[in-house]
Amino acid sequence: MADQTYPIPGTLDTTPSRGAALLEWVHSWVVTVDHKKLGILYIAYALVFLLVAGVEAMAIRIQLAIPHNHFLSAELYNEFFTMHGTTMVFLVGMTLIFGFGNYFVPLMIGARDMAFPRLNAFSFWMSAFGGLLLYFSFIGGFGLYGMGSAPDVSWWAYAPLTAKAFSPGHNTDYWALALIVMGFGTLGAAINTLATAFSMRCRGMTLLRMPLFVWLMVVASADTLIVITPLTAAQVMLIIDRYLGGHFFDTQAGGSATVWMHFFWIFGHPEVYVLILPAFGIASEVIPVFSRKAIFGYPAMVAASVGIAFVSLSVWAHHMFTIGMTSVSNAFFALSTMMVGIPTGIKIFNWVATMWGGKIRFATPMLFCTAFLFQFLCAGLTGIMLAVAPWDWQLHNSYFVIAHFHYTLTGSFVFCFFAAIYYWYPKITGRMLSETLGKWHFWLFFIGFHMTFDTMHFVGFLGMPRSSYTYEPDRGWTTLNMIISAGGLIQAVAVLILVWNIIDSFLHGPLAGNDPWDAWTLEWSTPSPPPPYNFETEPVVRSRRPLWDIKHPNDPDWKYER
Amino acid sequence: MADHLQHEQIFANAAAIQLPAPTAWPMILAFGCTLAAASLVTDAGIGLLGGVFMLAGCVGWFRQVLPKERHEEVPIVHRPVPIATSRALVEHIRLSPEHRAHLPIETYPVISGIKGGIAGGFAMIVPALIYGLVAQHSIWYPINLLGGAGVANWRNPSTADIAAFHWQGLLVAIVIHSLTCVLVGLLYGAMLPMLPRRPVLLGGILAPVLWTGILHSFMGIINPALDQRIQWGWFLVSQVTYGLTAGFVVARQERIPTAQSMPFVERLGIEAAGLIDSRPGADPAQDKERH
What we know:
- The complex is a heterodimer.
- Chain A is an all-alpha fold.
- Chain A has a single domain, classed as Cytochrome C Oxidase, Chain A, CATH 1.20.210.10.
- Chain A contains 16 helices and two strands.
- In chain A, strands 1-2 form a two-stranded antiparallel ribbon.
- In chain A, helix 3 runs antiparallel to helix 4 and helix 14 runs antiparallel to helix 15.
- The N and C termini of chain A lie far apart (about 80 Å).
- In chain A, about 50% of the residues are buried.
- Chain B is mostly helical.
- Chain B folds into two domains: about 55 residues; about 150 residues, no CATH class.
- Helix content of chain B is about 60%, strand content about 5%.
- In chain B, helix 4 packs antiparallel against helix 10, helix 7 crosses helix 10 and helix 8 runs antiparallel to helix 10.
- Chain B is elongated and about 105 Å long.
- Chain B starts with a helix and ends in a 24-residue tail after the last helix.
- At the A-B interface, helix 4, helix 5 and helix 16 of A face helix 1, strand 1, helix 2 and helix 3 of B.
């Protein structure tokens, strides 16, 4: 009797409900260990926080547009510029580089996944939860101004401002703890990138055949391993000072505020290179493809990248010229900083030489990379100016410094990552981004950027200190600040165009095919978006441009490469 | 090698590929770590909860990889991936063996620079003396300006002093002028083969203009008194006369191949079969003298 089956009248609908399907979709993202999905999570996370940091920046600029403005309270202003800096460096910059690294390093070296897929997931979630912990301070932080106090000690958090006496409550603790949590995520991502690049390369992919983006991710990851450690150590020391009665940074009890500066900038300055090196990698992929030429001086590019990483570890105290170091220290850090100009100069010449005589196509990725070349050069030149100690004494803590590092981080890093979004979006989604909207995005962002940050140099020359809440109308800064703020607004519009482009193209964009740019690296030899296993069969490469070899069997690169 | 090939074959024929199985444990561990950190600024209970999550995350993660790593089978979906280009035509960069910016394959012999320097030195005397006659009514004025250091007893000389004949001044001026002209001539001989397109014009005009400009900017600091007495327009005319003459004389000389373009053994002076060509007109097989 029990073995009998009975027919059910009617038919069974086996398709899951929309709610269940959505739940399943969310679940697939939460439990994923696939490098591509984690890469997308990193990038999406970074873009969300880019918008958040952008809102903070706009609020700061509205506050400074006119003198004696009270758009923000002084307290909220302090919180906003602290959170803007922290967000852009840790939640946008670091997550973007490891997002693109996660997605493309295995694809570019012909691997099926990262070396440690579960560590990869752990690293992402540590970064994500660390960011949420930081922003939870806006609700849960209890600081000098009561409940809902975000960190307000600026992104470098100099001692003794961070001591309990000057920063009561928990907002500084949120900052330190969030950075510790994110730091472990970053370390995991860096270890994974190194292990993947060194041990997962497909057959024929020697180190000197690796795409430059992979090389730059390797160098940035190695730098990350070195520099995140002192930052984490400093945060732990800060927590000990604040909770366990330590005196590392308490000058009244034999500690030293300068020690914090050293620890922070040993991390802080190489961090700029950690961010900018993968951006160099993007430029090194985009410029050759859109110039229709192989990269000029590949070995020199690799050597220069490694050189930058080494030299960048010996320049940190150029942030501290004004604390009164010895003349020998000043000279050393001035010279070591200037030395960075040599390998970076090599790179700029090589990019220009790659473009020279090429059939250049100014598609949106190339537009962003071309602007990057010019802007990075300017950023380098103002960097050399600030490396001269007496010059730095005049302009330290002025808006000139702000203009310099925004030229580096926005004019170079952000421009390159916008290029990366336009270049690799077809591979990630299988659809093309709108070129028309892309060009609107580029030109508006380019104009807005120069209105803001070119002008910021002048307001710095005129003596406007950074982190000022407001200013007197008779200082001659009013018009310049209005121009800076207007430029910021134009940039915000440009970013909104990008967001619209990303969403609209995902839904309605033309299909991309596997290789829309006629490119040469392995990620373009697999469908768009790639299947979970990346490649049906393990690729075998014989040169730095494996797809060129396939496309031009009579004229392959391996005939010429040594 | 055989293993590799077999491995590839297995992949090629497989219907599915093993990939690491999805798991939530790394996320749970990360959440636990964050809660543990947050407990410092919230509540000890949050820390306790974080500890539970961390423990669960660790145990779950270990069970994912021990004793054997969990995988999932992902079926292979065969999709055509065309790898082709519409730009099949390839243009190679044409390199001329003579396009050598740094190491010229041919240069002028050393003697040409000396000849050019001497010729230029004589030529520039003419505008200098004309200047002396026209501006100061004395040919000795420009000579004494150059050789003034040789007149030991001079202290703030007047114009009349400088315009008068002094044999020590003449002697020193001749030495300075001769040496400088020959040395600059040698420099010309070495430099001209590296200048693009019209080397004589570049070397003959641009270099003297730059040189005069540099001297003009420095002289006011080094020797303000001398600076006041030099007529820079005339000075420039003399320099350009020198440059054009020296350049012209150097450029007329026959070029010789530079050592840099020779093989290393040849630069060492080793003469051996296959290294050097036979003498013109001689049958290589019969040319025993050279081989």
